[in-house]
Structure formats: structure tokens, C-alpha cells
Amino acid sequence: MISQIFSLAFLAQTIRITVPYSLASLGGVYSERGGVVNIALEGIILNGAFCATVGTYYTGSALFGVICGIAGGLLTALIHAVVSIHIKADQIISGIAINLFAVGITKFVLEILFHSSSNSDRIPGLPHIHLGFIENQPDVARLLGNPLVLLTIIIVIASQFIIFKTRFGLRLRAVGENPEAADTVGISVTLYRYYGVLISGVLAGLAGAWLAFDQHSFTDGMSAGRGYIALAAMIVGKWNPLGAAAACLLFGFAESLQIQLQGAGLPTQFIQMIPYVATIIVLAGFIGKAVAPGADGVPYEKEK
Amino acid sequence: MPYAIELLNITKRFARTVANDNVTLRVQSGSIHALVGENGAGKTTLMETLYGLYQPDAGKIRIHEKEVSIRTPHDSITLGIGMVHQHFMLVPPLTVLENIVLGAETTSHALLDLRKTTAEISELASRFGLSVPLTEKVENIGVGTQQRVEILKAIYRKADILVLDEPTAVLTPQESVQLFRILSELKEEGKTIVLITHKLNEVMAISDHVSVMRKGKIVGEVETARTTPQDLAQMMVGRPVLLRVEKGEKKPGGPMLVVNDVSYVDRRGIGVLKNLSVEIASGEILGIAGVEGNGQSQLAECIAGLLKPTSGSITIDGIQIVGLTAHEVFARGLAHVPEDRIKRGLVIDMNIKENMILGMHAQQRFSSRLALNRKAITENARLLITKFDVRPMDPEAIARGLSGGNQQKVIIARELSRNAQVIVASQPTRGVDIGGIEFIHRTLVQARDSGKAVLLVSADLNEILSLSDRIAVMYGGRIVKVFPDNKVEESELGLYMTGSKGNAAQEAQGD
Amino acid sequence: MDGKKHWLEHPATQNFLIPILAVILSFAVGAIFILIVGQNPLEVYSILFSQTLGTSYGVGQLLFKTTPLIFAGLSVALCFRAGLFNIGAEGQLQMGAFVTALVGMYTFGVPAFLEVPLLILAGMVGGGVWGFIPGYLKAKTGAHEVINTIMLNFVAAALVSYFVTNVYNVPATVHTPPIAPTGRLSRFDTVFAGFAGSPVNFSILIALLAALFVWYYIDRTRYGYELRVVGLNPKAAEYGGISVSKNIILSMTIGGAIAGLVGTNFVMGYKYYFEEGFSTGTGFMGIAVALLGNNNPFGVILAALLFGMLEYGGLVINTMVPKELVSILQAIVIIFVISSNKIFRRILVNFLKKRTLSIND
Q: Which of A99, A84, A87, A93 is CA-nearest to residue C289?
């Protein structure tokens, strides 16, 4: 039975689940490293998924769909950025409002375009690269050859470098930790916070696009809490790209295990709780210290 | 010698105050220029204007004899100005190296080129004797090292003008000596240094020139070699007319508040109170003079149960209060006028009557087991408002809308209504108008006359001199001198307050 | 200066004006969406109002939707007053409603005068425990209540799902067996025929009582005084001898207990069992309600009525415009409220500055 569970198909399942978590979670890392709490990830994913679906449906081009997904995420993140950074309103409430907005607007347009309140028409999946070595496992081959899987792996590794080894990353972290210090050395706090939030829009939008292509359609509320899991993974991963991705992998593993066990008729709700309980435990400081960036969630008000 | 900095007729107004009033300051190139004055004299504002954090309302700035416009710190950095702020502008989770290069990074192929930078910074560090652990995180290094990081940060940006705001405030005497050695090195290299301080022994030890500020104006500028600490102290505190306080002979009783051998080490591991002992009898006002930041606030908070001393004992009427909560200390007979009325003393968005029961809200007269006695609360407020002449005379008025003086009256009214035996009053008249000051002073004297023990902490020497029966001077976490009466020259007090006289001065000489 | 203030400067005026402006603005933005669909906004809005407020059935539906929003809004508002952000009302109300149903299943034969209070209490305990956890974690470890309450929402959902599908399941459904008949709250239509068909029931009176309680507690008791001091200035609370951590735990627990009362509407007053997915984001909507109601219990009632009207109104206009229009409206109201607080004050400050300048000239 063990070998049945941990098959290649299981691996594929885990990756399939982990990809969108990782993308969104990395988005959270960029946003919060810059000092803006991003609960809006959930809504960004949803809008990204919707835009990707619509883009692909009307042009038939998956690439165009991906671009639409990113654009949708970006626009949604832009609302959050303006409200949080410019207007300096409460970032948490803004995030919640954006999530509500995303649920409403996607269903609204869904009904107009597809005359259904639950799902869109079918769209083709992403074309994949042919991998010779596992052609006897077509599902797995298709997944591993998926350009978005490769892209996600690249983004995870690159993000670790970007955050910790580049000028951009250094400035982003400074702005999120101590904006006043950044300001006194001439770094624009506003600009870097925009970068952080907008990058989160791109990445979470991409996560949404993945969901749409994975299911070959848009279904109502299809983000299904993934934005919050991504947020949890970001915390468990202690705001590090690699850590967040590792947490996503763990959560993805747990979830695909749960799907396997469901078939076996076992109660799976307790496995479902793993990400959330893990986050609570980590936050309480039972496993090392999880310290958010110093100025996370605090608008920067210059004294004048 | 040419001037490196010329601040010409600078005026900077804030909402209620004029921080700099037509100030002109010239600093010679390649010199160390001390800027001294009491807290609130406008030194920091003037220098932050130079650094581009504030825009002056009037005046001109010339750097190296060229008129410049400085809108942001970025502009001043470009002009070769570096500033070490009193509160360090460092990012704790970043490494020392990252902090130094932040905003002025060298990159190669989009990556930070830390190897090249490390070499460059190590060279600078060894040249000026600024040893810092480059790969350590700032949150793990001591304040002395953090300060060297700040100086390196400025030098790395090719600053040839360096402003340091109260640099020794957080340093041990040994670290201060080291800092002065570094500053001399920098001067040798031709850099211009402005040193904001209130410690006159430092001024005498290191500066070439000194300018004295008082109440937003420059009141004197001299060559250090041609002045004495006595003269400077006199200039700093000035000679305005003493406020007259009607005060009878003191009739002190037995010791009421006894602080014995109290030490307090703060979260960063810095000893803020060092084996401090002091006694106050009932029926007397003991004034604690001192420049802010020498442990006065912590002493008051230790007594009030808001901080727990690391060691030592504090008793009120013979009863130990160390380890009690703030609420319990109130119950043992303390009234406390905290130094920061907005942060601690008031709930600024509540109305007067609600603020007037803070800390007493659970007493039977204001509350049954469940419900507040609204009538009694309003009545209490009416009474206190009339007695203390609070304006507006409306119990429902929100504290935020009151003037500073009236806010302070609300606190003092509340604290005196506790009927406590000991009153700790920290900076009771800060930001209060003249009329309010007089009233508050009279009230404190009345309390003393009725047999209460009053501990008055104030940075205002006039206040200390006109109210106190005895005066203790605090410096570096210790009481360095107790005067048995208030018949002491201000300049004499000034010498103790600035560490030029007393244990601290002897200690420094001993090092 | 203690002198005369411009009337716009008074906090009371602003507290009143900003929510109204936000609602009007969001309806204006909503009109754009309606135009996109090719309908007449005025027509849609007039139907929205007349079908909800104009018929007793509509009013009944509206009140039914309003009841849980009042509980959730009060829960969030009370915590807000203590300086805490309770995003966990959703989880708390799930737990509360589930425990209500659970106790109701096992107490057949208990007379109504005991059963009803017992079930109400059960809901409060279920929700209260779920509020206590993040409160305790915040007070003792400093863990931020926002993240913990979000996480606990999901844990609650999984937990009730486990019990409903694996333990207390009525086969082929996602609900529990029914509660004891004595624990039922009457529907209004059993008393007032006009409400016939609408599920509004006497739990709305419990909601109004809860609002009264929250008002009394916050405004009139010493515990409420402590809660407000902690919320407005924790340092002053410390100075005044008020325990900050005790108040954090207490407020979250009470907030959770109030959210837990949502079960009175659905479990005791409508279906008589607990059903998975019975709440569609009521807890989150509670945040909007509290915000719009300015964290004042009576403001919460008004805001809940508006949101309740929108929720039912979505169904009414669904033939002309997708009913999600109302979700969009609700989201925009929230964004406008939090933004206009800042923007409005900024504009006001500039406006007053200019005025004083011109007077001085």
C-alpha cells in the first residue's frame, strides 16, 4: 500500500498542488519583506485565474492567457498597493475587501461572458515540453514538462538570490524592517513598497493562471483558500523564499496524501489542518522564532 | 580658514513652537565644532535641517562657500554631509556590511559585489580605527559598535562633514574615550565635525569651537580654548527671571520614600541606574536636576511599579514596593505624574471625566462590582475641573482637544485626588503655558505643605531651583551630588549636570 | 486652541458622514457595473429597495440575513474597541453553531425554558473557546491575532466538517441530526402572518439584546472602561494598573462568544440542525459591518441592516444583473470607508488651512 501511495503519480500530484502555493507564497514574501501585509493574495489568485481563463478562451493562446493572468494579478495588487501605501489605510482590511471584491467581480463577469454562475467553458491546457525518459507515464511527463513547473523552480531559486544577494533585495528588506533608516540614506520607501506588492501581484496572478490551466476552466471561488495557505507557508518559512517554498512542498505533500487517503475512506480533515496548526505553532514560538519584518503592516508616515 | 558649513538666518517653525529662530552658525573647515544647549534648545532640529530632514521656513545654507538647496537626505549625502542620529538609523536584522552599503551599493551583474566592498570598507575602518565585525548582524552588536557602524556609513559615502547628535549618550566612559580618538583621527584627515552635546567636559576635551543654543537661538559662540565650563554652563541655562513661588518654611517629617541601592539594567543590557540611593521626607520637595537621559525617567518608573529594578529596594512609609504592580503601588500611597502625558498619562481619545478616574476606576466610589457610577464620575470631574481650573470646564471634552497645560492639569488633578503620601512628578510643566506652570507649582507646594513627600524630576533648572527644598543632581544613572537647600548657583548645578564636577568627572579622570 | 471648531471637524460628524459617503460612492461605482450589463442603474436600484423594504416578505428575508451579521459585527466591534482585530468571527460562529447543534441533539426532553438558554450558552461556549485561543496566544506569546484567527477559521471548518461527515451524520447529507424540538425558536410568521414564508425568527431579538449588552458592557461597566483604555492606549493602561493581557484574553473570548450566537438564527431558528457550509463568509462580512458601524453597537445594527438588505437584494435583482453585484458593492464600501477616513481628514485639514489663511489675509 505504501508503494501505491508514494508512486510517481503521487509525486506529480504533490507538485501540481505545490506550484500555485509556492508562487503565491513567494509573492507574500516580496510584499511583506517590503513591509506590506498581503492578505489579498487570495483575491489576486482568483482574479489571475479568471483573467487567464478569459484570455485563453478568446484567443486560444495559452501564452496570452498566462500574460492575462499576470495582468489580472498585477491590477488587483495595484489596488492593494494604492490603498496601503498611498492612502496608508489599514492593510489587513484592504486585503479582506479585495478578496471579497475578487469573489464578486469574477462571478459577475463569469455570468456575463459564460452565462453560468459556477464555471467557464473549457480551455486548453498549457503546451508541455516532451520529456523522453518517462513517456510511459504520460501524466507525469506532461506535468514535469510543463513550462510553469520549470518557471516556478527557477523563480524560487532566483528569489532567494534576489532577496538576499541583490541591491534590490537589500533595499526591499531595509524598507520593510526600518523605513526611516532607508529614508535617511535616500531610498524611496514608497517606490520599493510598490515593487514588493506588485511583484506579489505578478506571482500570485501566475498561481491563478496555473489553477485555470490545471482545471481547464475557471470555477467559482477556485482559489479555495490557497492564498491563506500561501500566507501560512510564508510564515512557516520565516519570510524566506526557500523556506516558504519548502513549507509549500510540505503542505502540498500533506494535501496529496489527504487525497489518496480519501480514496481509502479515511477521515482526512486532520491532515487538512496541518498547514494551519503548523502556522499557529510556529507563530507561538514553539519552533524557533518567527519574526515578521520590523515594519510589516505599518504605513510609513514621515514626520514633518 | 574657510567655512565648511554656513547656516544663515535659519528659521524653522513647528505647529506650536519656533524650534530655530533666525539662527546663524558657521563651522570652519577641518575643525570640531561643539553645539551645546539644554534639551529642546533646537540643536537637533538645526542639524536635521542641514541634513535635509526638515525644510527651513527661512534662511540659507552654504556648504564649502557655495549656496546649496538641500531637500532630502539624498541631497546632503551628495554634498558630503553625514549624520549620526541620536537614535541610530540602522536596520537590525541586516549585517554591518549591508547596513554600511545600503543606498550606496556596488553591484556587478545585478548582484551585490560584497567582496570589493568589504575590501574598501576594511581599509576605511583600519585607517580610522573603526573596528567593526562586518558579517555580524547589527541586532547582535553593542551600541558602541553600532555607532562606529554609523560613522563608517557616513565615511563610506565620502562624507567630509560629519554631524554627531549626542554621540556619547549611550556609551560607556571607555567607549567615549575611543570615540574621541576616532574623531581626532577624522579631523586629522581634514574632515569637519559638528558635535551636538550637553556634556561640557566633552566639549572642553575635544572641540575647537563651541556654539551655545538656548530656546531656539544661538546665545554665544567662542573658541574652546578661551572659555571655561563655568561660562558655558551659565550661557546654557541663561539667567531669566526666576519664577516666584510662594513657599513657607519646610517642616519635614520622617523619611517617607526611601530608594536604597537601586540598579536597573535595560533590555539592551545597559546599566541605566547604578546603585542609586535617595530619601525623601514627608513635607519636603526633593528636586532631581539633570540633563534628560541620565536615568531620571527610569527612576520614576521604578518607583511607580512600571519598571522592576534589577536590584535594590524602594519603600513607601517603610513598606517594600519593589515587585508590586502599578495598581498595588498606587494602593500603597503613590501618586505619579508621568513624564510623557500623551503616551502614558492620558488616554488621549477619552474625555476628561474618564481620564480623571484612570487607576481609580475600580474604587468603590466610582464603580459597583459591575457598573460604573456615572454620576460620581461626572461629579468628581466637575469638582476637579473647578478646583484645578481646567479649560474647557466640560467633563465630556475629549483630552485630545485640550491644550498641553490643561492636559497636564487633568493628570495632576487626578493624581492629587488619590490622596497619596508620595508624589512623583516628572517634568510636570513641560509644554505648559506660564499661567499653568504657576498653578502647577503652587499645587505641588501645597501638597508639600500638607505633609506629602514630593519627588520632582525636571530638566528645567528654574523649576528645580524655585520649588525644591533639597536638590539632588543625577548624572550617568547616579546621584552625583545632593545640595541640602536650594541656595545654589545655576552654573554650579550645570557643572554637576554635565559631568564636569562630581563622581563622574573624577571617574573620567581616573580612567 | 479651544476655540470654535468648524462643524466638519467634530468627530461625531465625521463618524456619521464618512460611512454614508462611502455607501453613496459605492452605489455610484456599482452603477457603472450595471451600465456595463446594459441595464438602467436607477431601475435596478429601485427594484433592489422596493423588493426588500417594500414587502413584508422582503423585510422578513432581510431581517433573517441581518441577524447573523449583527452577531458577527458585534464580535468584531468589541474586539476592535480593545485594539484587537478579530478576523476569526467566521471560525467562532462555526464552532458556536456546531456546539449548539451538538448539545441540542443530546438534550431531548428538556423543557423549553431550560433548553433554549442551554443552547444559547452552548453556542457562546463554542465560540468563546475559539476566541480564547488566539487571545491567549497573543497575551502570552505575542503571536499576532490576525494570522492566528485566520488559521483558526480553517481549523474550525475542518473540525466541524470532520464531525458532520464522520460522526454526527445524516446519511447522504452534510448536516447533523435535528436538535430537540424544545430548543427551537419560533419563526415570526407563526406570530405575524405578514412574514409568511420568510425564515426570520426570534433570534433577532437575541441579536438586539447582544447589541444592548455590548453597548452596556463597553460604555457602562468598569470592565468596559478597562477594555477601552487598553484599546486606546496600552501604555496608559499599564500606568493605570490595568492588566493588558487579561483584557486581551477577555475581549477575544467575549467576542468569540458573541459570534458563537449565530447558531441561534440558523440552528435554533431556521433548519434545526447544523449544516456544513451554512455560513457564507458571515464572519468576514462582520468586519465590514463593524467598520461601517464605526464599532458602535447601534451602528453595527444599522450597518447589518444595510448589508442584510444587500444580501437578500442580490437575489431580487438577479434577473437583471448578476447577484454578485452586491458582493462588489460590499467590497467597495469597505475600501471606501478605510480610505475615506484618511482622505477625508486630509482634505479637511487642507480645506481648513486655506480658510484660515484667507481669513488671516
A: A93
Cα–Cα dist B290/B273, whole Å = 14
Looking at the partner chain, which of C87, C159, C327 has a beta carbon nearest the beta carbon of A269? C159
**Are the beta carbons of C338 and A231 separated by less than 8 Å?**
no
| A272 pLDDT higher than 90 | no
Verify whether the Cβ–Cβ distance B361 to C233 is below 8 Å: no
Tell which of B86, B102, B152 to mutate to test the A interface (max A CBs under 10 Å).
B102
The C-alpha cell 461597566 sits at C221
- What mean pLDDT, rounded, does chain B reach? 89
**C54: how many CB neighbours lie within 10 A of its CB?**
12
Percent of chain B at pLDDT > 70 equals 95
Closest partner CB to B73 (pick from A167, A177, A186): A186
> Cβ of A87 and C87 within 8 Å?
no
Cell numbers at C177, concatenated:
441530526
pLDDT in tens, B243-273: 566 677 777 788 999 999 999 998 777 889 9
The answer to whether A104 and C314 are in contact (CB under 8 A) is no
Asked if B103 lies within 8 A of A165 by C-beta distance, the reply is no
Considering CB atoms only, which of A101, A108, A283 is closest to C322?
A108
| Residue B322 near residue B497 (C-beta atoms within 8 A) | no
Residues 6+ apart with CB under 8 A from B1: B28, B29, B30, B31
Which residue of C1, C221, C228 is in closest CB contact with B371? C221
pLDDT of residue C360: 40
pTM of the model: 0.88
Q: Which residues of A touch B91 (CB under 8 A)?
A: 173-174, 177-178, 181-182, 294
d(CA C229, CA B184): 51
Structural domain spans, chain A: 9-121+135-223
CA atoms within 13 A on the CB side of C15: 12
Query: For residue range B140-150, what is the model confidence (pLDDT) as tens digits?
Result: 888 889 999 99
Residue in A25, A79, A87 to test binding to C, most C beta-carbons within 10 Å: A87
The answer to whether the CB of B32 falls within 8 A of the CB of B193 is yes
Average pLDDT, chain C: 91
**Among A297, A144, A168, which Cα is nearest to A231's?**
A297
CA distances from C156 to A269, C98, C121 (A): 10, 10, 19
Backbone angles phi, psi at B472, to 5 degrees: -115, 140
For C291, the enclosing helix (H) or strand (E) is helix C282-292
With an 8 Å Cβ cutoff, is B111 touching chain A?
A: yes
Give the HSE-up count for residue C197: Cα atoms under 13 Å, Cβ half-sphere: 6
Is residue C202 within 8 A of residue C269, CB to CB? The reply is yes
3-state secondary structure of A285: coil
CATH topology for the A9-121+135-223 domain:
ABC transporter involved in vitamin B12 uptake, BtuC (1.10.3470)
**Residues C327-349 as b or e (16 or more Cβ within 10 Å = b):** bbbbbbbbbbbbbbbbbbeeeee
User: Could you tell me which chain C residue has the CA closest to the CA of B375?
Assistant: C220
User: In B398-454, where does DSSP find H-type helix?
Assistant: 404-416, 434-449
pLDDT tens sequence across B388-403: 989 889 999 999 888 8
Rounded-to-integer distance, Cα C341 and Cα C14, Å = 8
Chains touching A, CB cut-off 8 Å, 3+ pairs: B, C
The residues in C 229-248 lying below 8 A from B, measured between CB atoms, are: 229, 232-233, 235-236, 238-242
Mode of pairing for the β-strands spanning B422-426 and B217-223 = unpaired
pLDDT digits (tens, 9 = 90+) for C154-186: 999 999 999 998 899 898 899 999 999 999 999
Q: What is the ipTM of this complex?
A: 0.88
